[in-house]
Amino acid sequence: MASRPMRIRAVEKDGVTEVKVLMSHIMETGQRKDSDGKIVPAHFIDLVEAKCNDKTVLTAQWGPAVSRDPFLSFKFKGGKKGDKISVSWKDNEGGSRTDTAEVH
């Protein structure tokens, strides 16, 4: 699935790094019908992983109840300015994407 890059912002303050991510994905539940009355197949992100300098800081399992173009925000301790944050997702059809940003 071709998708737009994730928008990632990571800011460190007082030893805590806050990461905000806007993902681009259709997130179909498998319960909606198209104009012909046929069920639109489920297509959603089922795994999200975030790393700081190759150390996993977040792993999340998602399902079809997450909205289209999901927004994710989380905090963790141990990051510092200049560190690389990478966020990856995998969907139920085998699609995936990884993007990176630098902590400010």
Give your account of this protein's structure.
With 104 residues, the chain is mainly beta. It has one domain: Immunoglobulins (Immunoglobulin-like, Sandwich). Helices cover 0% and strands 49% of the residues. The chain is built from no helices and 7 strands. The chain has strands at 7-13, 16-22, 45-52, 55-61, 71-77, 84-91, 96-102. The chain has a 4-stranded antiparallel sheet, with no helix packed on it. The mean pLDDT is 95.
Question: What attributes characterize this protein structure?
Answer:
single chain; 104 residues; mainly beta; Immunoglobulin-like; four-stranded antiparallel beta sheet; three-stranded antiparallel beta sheet; 0% helix; 49% strand
